[in-house]
From TrEMBL:
Signal peptide: none annotated. The keyword Zinc-finger applies. GO terms for cellular component: cytoplasm. Residues 141-156 have a biased composition (Low complexity). GO terms for molecular function: GTPase activator activity; zinc ion binding. This is ArfGap-domain-containing protein.
């Protein structure tokens, strides 16, 4: 019932990839509190976290956020694919779509902010997270819902009805 072990070479390659990902400008700070140098990730949400926010994510349960260490854990191909295709910018384009751009939660409200963000989807884009998060690249975090849809998917009725 156990998974076959990954090779050391694969684990080393994953570690290099993770180190490169957290050096990208959008991943250099925690997705939630904006602290520098995140060393944790929520692989199912595809975002990078500081240690404090990773603890809050863990406390929400694995049905919401699945947390791993960038430095200490072994990563599966599925987990790697998720953080590679998402990243903090795309994650926040979805989870903070209706939050004022540049918002940084106050220190004393970080747990409440994180729970509102992921448990109740308070500022999330309408609908489930896209299977291809690159569609979120077309607009900023505060973009309208139509901005992330392909042009062919936006009907003239919808555009005229605004």
């Amino acid at each position: 019932m156990s998974r076959p072990a990954q090779s050391k070479a694969q684990n080393d390659a994953n570690a290099r990839t993770l180190r490169a990902l957290v050096k990208q400008p959008e991943n250099k700070t925690c997705v939630d509190c904006k602290r520098n140098d995140p060393r944790w990730a929520s692989w199912n949400l595809g975002c990078f976290l500081c240690i404090r926010c990773s603890g809050i994510h863990r406390s929400m349960g694995t049905h919401i956020s699945k947390v791993k260490s960038i430095d200490l854990d072994i990563w599966t191909p599925e987990q790697m694919a998720s953080v590679q295709k998402w990243g903090n910018r795309r994650a926040n384009a979805y989870w903070e779509a209706h939050l004022k751009a540049g918002h940084v939660p106050p220190e004393h409200k970080i747990e409440s902010f994180i729970r509102s963000k992921y448990e109740t989807k308070r500022w999330a884009k309408e609908g489930p997270p896209p299977s291809d998060p690159s569609v979120l690249d077309q607009g900023g975090a505060a973009a309208s819902p139509a901005a992330a849809a392909p042009v062919s998917a936006v009907s003239s009725e919808r555009c005229g009805g605004r």
